[in-house]
UniProtKB/TrEMBL annotation:
Species this chain originates from: Ideonella dechloratans
Record function comment: Responsible for the release of ribosomes from messenger RNA at the termination of protein biosynthesis. May increase the efficiency of translation by recycling ribosomes from one round of translation to another.
Gene coding for it: frr
Protein name: Ribosome-recycling factor
GO biological process: cytoplasmic translational termination
Recorded GO MF terms: ribosomal large subunit binding
Keywords, comma-separated and alphabetical: Cytoplasm, Protein biosynthesis
A Pfam short name: RRF
PANTHER family: MITOCHONDRIAL RIBOSOME RECYCLING FACTOR PSEUDO 1, RIBOSOME RECYCLING FACTOR
Family: Belongs to the RRF family.
Amino acid sequence: MTIADIKKTAETKMAKSVEALKNELQKIRTGRAHPGILDQVHVEYYGSMVPLSQVANLSLLDARTISVQPWEKGMASKIEKAIRESDLGLNPASQGDLIRVPMPALTEERRKELTKVARGEGEDAKVAVRNLRRDANEHLKKLLKDKTITEDDERRAQDDIQKLTDRTIAEIDKTVQAKEADILAV
């Protein structure tokens, strides 16, 4: 494994950590409705649990209401039950074969709790990035020990990995701050 391989691997894994953070933050709901909130809801469909988006069409009716249009008529009650039993605190209402999911307004207390959750997700992502930095530095030390690189090369590579880590952590902070602002916006 060369220095370039170690840097590339670290960069790729750090980018994946940021993407994972963005996916986790998307699950935290804000005051506005968006269909992504229902991504974690699974519905029983012919004996197996499938994501809601695979059995129904999800769209927005307005800023605070998601519409769920089941593809099969018999699925409406199962979908409604699955949404109600999810830990999202939503209360769907059927209108014929259309299910309306109104987003309740967030209380100030709930907003603060959600910002803490967002910060926690950010911290988890930072820990993952720091672990990746440590792994990359250990690979560099091993190369130095095996005498395949010089001490100067190792020092330079460690500096590059530290700069990559700093950039990634700054991106994580920016992402979390944007989510907090979104949550706190009334």
